[in-house]
Amino acid sequence: MLNELDWELHRRGLRFVRYADDLMIFCKSKRSARRVLANIVPYIEGKLFLKVNSEKTTVAHIRYVKFLGYGFYRYKELCRLRVHPKSVSKMKARLRVLTARSNGWGNESRAERITRFIWGWVNYFKLADMKELLKETDEWLRRRIRAIYWKQWKRIRTRYRMIAKYGIPEWKVHEMANCRKGVWRSALMLNIVLTNTEIARLGYISMSDYYRSLSVA
Checking DSSP bridges between strand 15-19 and strand 78-83, what pairing results, if any? Predict the structure, then answer.
């Protein structure tokens, strides 16, 4: 339906990118951008009989723009891609749901669901520069996973048995099993036994590792 709009923008000599009904038009100055906006909206609504969402239609510098979940920044005179902060918030909200301790899923099912989500999310945003973002997210996610296991090991004797199998000194096993800290603080302590390698063995993949495997970092 917007094919005619594409040709009209070409005719006017404007640079633009469109995916379905998401459109960005690039101008050299804020003044020219406002002029283009004032001229193109009447064309869309008057000629194509389509309604323009005035709340989402704005003039903004590229660093403030969100397009298909991506954000943009300039580095060495080039425009580069990043994951927009709103997309990061949505991603973490979804991971919170997947790692909720009250969802009733078994560990294998949870690991599988998280893996599928990571595959889809990282593949979608693989063009973005996000090494540091994924590193921080991995650390946060692994801590949430450790919290799940700590919560599952409710009784002291269960904690003792589960921690002891990792071969750490008995005094340390006793200290950890009798820990009275909250779940989140205990999860940080648990990295001694539930190391990154062990978490991977349990079926949880690393977002950073998967991102690197796509050879786009």
Answer: unpaired
